[in-house]
Design brief:
- The chain is mostly helical and about 450 residues long.
- The chain is about 45% helix and about 10% strand.
- Among the domains are: about 5-75 and about 190-240, HUPs (Rossmann fold, 3-Layer(aba) Sandwich), CATH 3.40.50.620; about 80-170 and about 175-180, Glutamyl-tRNA Synthetase, Domain 3 (Glutamyl-tRNA Synthetase, domain 3), CATH 3.90.800.10; about 380-455, Orthogonal Bundle (Arc Repressor Mutant, subunit A).
- It starts with a strand and ends with a helix.
- The relative contact order is 0.10.
């Protein structure tokens, strides 16, 4: 059977590099085994889900080269979820609860203070039909919990009930349903939380494999229980490790940390993002690949570590730099035009070894054109620069001018090394380092170079 997988982001914020890790793993799994990749927008949160975030998700995936086989929206399937809820209620698998979020939190805190696990006590199951009616008459709104099948006779006497699966990444997993609370499936306002729509969609869309972050491991036990109650086939599950920042904190769409949109706008290369997101936190070395097909070939769920992986933006810059250094002028001409930085093939060949991200090309465009803040020099350096300009005025302007000129300056001034080259570079480019001066001089031109040496 060819696998069917899904990437199911909620359009409540911008995708970050951790989200893309999940998308890539599912994409690679589908492509490797000739399966289908579904993009499912979990947009049941009417308050925070927006059309703009949905469009941003599609743009991010397209930029990376991930093309879904189909796109689904949970907001278009609410009637399906309503039907399943009615079915669960009729069989006694859902029960109404009236505690407010504050009351639930107080209950959790009391249990923790007593050294007990913070598991909901199912007290709402004891409410009579008459009391339910009275609560509703008083304007109380109910949320609905899924009664986990962790008991034989009385739900108030749960027993150890293990949910087992052989995780594609983490190996054998066991979670006791008696150790977790009955999950809330429906909010007081009638909207759905993650669990029920996810399971219903996984069933209806024929999911065979679910690959997601390790933060969903506990959810998996409750979801498998729901699969069983709905008499459905259970997909294979795989839970990969998470990415954390340099301080050890996880990424969040709400914070916008390392959002794909920001990385794209800052000029990072898509294959640098994909290569790092896929390979960091695995037993494989982080190597930049030319395309997703190559990266897919080396993808192996068995090589993903169980420990979270620390991601440093500096590493992303190094990978982008490697990619940029390989690109020809023909590869990037349209991007140079778009950034108003197309100064020709010689310009690109000169600056590309010094680019960490593509947007750095703007800095060197400005250097060539003279749009930079002049440096401040000592009186001795000013005299040296003026003398350098005098010697340069008689030079033939060819690819060897830099060497002839600086060799002559060594003889005439006695300067060498940093004392010779640094003032020249600073006066001509405004920078302490950068592309080879021999190539930059040809781009800047003789007149502009001399004017800069004279600090005009």
């Amino acid at each position: 059977m060819n696998p069917v997988v899904r990437f199911a982001p909620s359009p409540t914020g911008k995708l970050h590099i951790g989200n893309i890790r999940t998308a890539l793993y599912n994409w690679f799994f589908a492509k490797k085994y000739k399966g289908r990749f579904i993009l499912r927008l979990d947009d049941t949160d009417k308050v925070r889900s927006t059309h703009e975030f949905s469009e941003s998700i599609l743009e991010d995936l397209q930029w990376l080269g991930i093309i879904p086989d189909s796109i689904e929206k949970q907001s278009e399937r609410v009637s399906v979820y309503d039907g399943v809820i009615d079915r669960l209620k009729s069989h006694g698998w859902l029960y109404a609860c009236y505690e407010s979020p504050d009351e639930i939190e107080c209950l959790r805190n009391r249990l923790i203070a007593r050294g007990l696990p913070p598991i909901y006590d199912r007290s709402s199951l004891k409410i009579s039909n008459e009391d339910h009616a009275n609560l509703l008459a008083q304007g109380k709104e109910s949320h609905w919990r899924f009664l986990l099948p962790n008991f034989e006779v009385s739900p108030f006497e749960p027993k150890r009930t293990e949910i087992y699966w052989n995780d594609l990444i983490r190996g054998p997993q066991r979670i006791d349903l008696a150790s977790i609370s009955d999950p809330i499936l429906v909010r007081c306002d009638g909207t759905y939380l993650y669990t029920l729509p996810s399971v219903v969609d996984d069933i209806d869309m024929g999911l065979t494999h679910i690959i997601r972050g390790r933060d969903h491991v506990t959810n998996t036990a409750a979801q498998i229980a729901l699969f069983n109650v709905l008499d459905a086939n259970i997909p294979a599950f795989g839970h990969h490790n998470l990415l954390v920042d340099s301080s050890g904190e996880g990424f969040s769409k709400r914070k916008g940390a390392l959002s794909i949109q920001t990385l794209r706008k800052n000029g990072y290369e898509p294959m640098a993002v994909s290569s790092l997101a896929c390979l960091i936190g695995t037993s494989q070395s982080v190597h930049v690949y030319e395309n997703l097909s190559q990266l897919s070939d080396v993808f192996d769920p068995q090589k993903i570590s169980c420990s979270d992986a620390k991601l440093d933006i500096f590493d992303l810059g190094k990978l982008s730099q490697k990619i940029l250094s390989r690109l020809s002028y023909a590869d990037v001409r349209s991007r140079l035009v778009a950034s108003h930085s197309d100064l020709g093939e010689s310009f690109w060949n000169s600056v590309r070894p010094n680019l960490k991200i593509f947007s750095d090309v703007i800095q060197w465009r400005d250097v060539v054109n003279g749009n930079f803040i002049p440096r401040i020099f000592s009186n001795d350096e000013i005299e040296f620069l003026k003398f350098s300009a005098f010697l340069l005025s008689d030079e033939v302007w060819d690819s060897y001018v830099w060497k002839r000129w600086t060799d002559l300056l060594k003889i005439r001034t006695g300067r060498k090394g940093r004392s010779l080259f640094m003032p020249l570079r600073q006066a001509i480019t405004g920078q302490d380092s950068g592309p080879e001066m021999a190539s930059l001089l040809l781009l800047i031109g003789k007149d502009r170079t001399i004017r800069r040496l004279l600090l005009l």
